[in-house]
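Subject: Predicted fold for TPR repeat-containing protein ZIP4, 353 residues

User T.R. writes:
Posting the sequence so we have a shared reference for the thread.
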Amino acid sequence: MKISELSPEYRQPPPPPQSALLTDLNRVVADVEALDASDSSSPEKLAADLRCLLTNLASAASSSSSGLNGAFRLKVWNLAFRLWNACVDRANHFAARGAEAAVAETEIRQAAPELLLVAGLPEGVPNAAAKAASLFHRTGLFWLDLGRADLASACFEKATPLVCAADTEEDRDILLDLNLARARAASSEGKQALAVALLSRSKPLAAASSVGVKALAEGYLLLGKAALATKSPDPAIDASSLLTEALDLCERAAASPCCTTPTSPRSSPATPNLQVIKDQCLRCLAAERLQANDYEGTLRCIMVSRASPGLGKEHSSIAFMALRACLSSGKLLEAERELDRLMANAEAPEFVC
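User M.O. replies:
I've generated the structure tokens; pasting them so everyone works from the same file.
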């Protein structure tokens, strides 16, 4: 007797239509975990398989009137995190691969947060939205390192709505990281006005901690350096203003209670390494003033930089800029002293000396 001839009550129920998706996804994740360098498991093929699975999963989610059920979502999330962890292992194992393989590996990595996004937020997973946003953020940083600011921006834009309500401290921290990363991506694409707007939008988020203020100061410093190099005609993209903002943020972070008060009786104050950022700001401001032929302004920046504690050896550019400013302003005796200081600096390039 054929199975189809059995009465309905004895027939095995057909497997759910989504079970095949889980089987295929589990197989591809296992291939990623295998660290196999064969052609059948090449990064390009694995990335293509994951793209196909994402398309099928999105189709299944949209075709179901009630969406994906909770148990299915949870299984997809478990597989997505297995995939992410496998990508971390692959990054360590295949560190010496070429540029094309690096792009494919990042595509594989991006499949993890994409799976979370398509599956939806399951119940019972704490801070699920923040977890998905964090993976998109970290994937975007990989794209930035590969010079693909467009793909990085796409990741950041997918992550932002997940935490834009900023309901929790974790959400606010991730949203700040996203804004800073989006500003970096915008700057690398030449969208300096957007980068400035994103940094300005980040100020309320950064104000809660000295670490956040330090990160924002670094963002303004990077944008100030870019403005100094490109000399944008837009008055809103002024290197001096951006670098001054970074310097002010350093001062604000250094003055915050968590930076000045030890966290325990035997500990030192929990101060981020603000002095390095401050030193870079002052050097860049000195260079900006020198370009503007404001020699007194250049020397003031250098004086403040030299008076700052804890910098160790002076950067060779300080004495070089001081020498140029002194010569240009007719301070020959001071220029001679700066030349001696420059010659004594072992790190100064030979062509400068």
